[in-house]
């Protein structure tokens, strides 16, 4: 169907723009800020139609997994470990999730997973991961 992208794959952290300004604005605790800075996170996405399992693999074996279906409310978890409910939307091949204090947009561009998080004060973080690994 039009507007669906194949997201499935493992994406190794490649670059991060505006990380510090962004995580300060969203109130991430300083220990989490340090842990996430230049952290070689691997994002693993399993897509089955509109059903997604989105897992972040952190160095040291810690993982965060969000499972959701496009268009249906799901229980989610932020980078900082806070639980919340969100309905992920698909628009023009991009996945859009409204986190408690920012908007997260993910898309596949040239075989890379590009994630842009925009905080309401317009501090934007852009993260990129290359595939495959």
From TrEMBL:
<dbReference type="InterPro" id="IPR000463">
    <property type="entry name" value="Fatty_acid-bd"/>
</dbReference>
<feature type="domain" description="Cytosolic fatty-acid binding proteins">
    <location>
        <begin position="9"/>
        <end position="26"/>
    </location>
</feature>
<dbReference type="Pfam" id="PF14651">
    <property type="entry name" value="Lipocalin_7"/>
</dbReference>
<keyword id="KW-0963">Cytoplasm</keyword>
<dbReference type="GO" id="GO:0005737">
    <property type="term" value="C:cytoplasm"/>
</dbReference>
<dbReference type="GO" id="GO:0008289">
    <property type="term" value="F:lipid binding"/>
</dbReference>
<comment type="similarity">
    <text>Belongs to the calycin superfamily. Fatty-acid binding protein (FABP) family.</text>
</comment>
<dbReference type="InterPro" id="IPR012674">
    <property type="entry name" value="Calycin"/>
</dbReference>
<protein>
    <submittedName>
        <fullName>FABP6 protein</fullName>
    </submittedName>
</protein>
<keyword id="KW-0446">Lipid-binding</keyword>
<keyword id="KW-0813">Transport</keyword>
<dbReference type="InterPro" id="IPR031259">
    <property type="entry name" value="ILBP"/>
</dbReference>
């Amino acid at each position: 169907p039009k507007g669906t992208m194949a997201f499935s794959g493992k994406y190794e952290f490649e670059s991060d723009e505006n990380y510090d300004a962004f995580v300060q604005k969203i109130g991430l605790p300083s220990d989490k800020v340090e842990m996430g800075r230049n952290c070689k996170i691997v994002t693993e996405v399993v897509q089955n139609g509109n059903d997604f399992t989105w897992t972040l693999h952190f160095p040291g074996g810690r993982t965060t997994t969000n499972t959701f279906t496009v268009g249906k409310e799901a229980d989610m978890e932020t980078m900082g470990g806070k639980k919340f409910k969100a309905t992920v939307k698909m628009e023009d091949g991009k996945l859009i999730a409204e986190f408690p204090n920012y908007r997260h947009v993910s898309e596949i561009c040239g075989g890379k997973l590009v994630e842009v998080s925009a905080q309401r004060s317009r501090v934007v973080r852009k993260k990129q991961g290359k595939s495959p690994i």
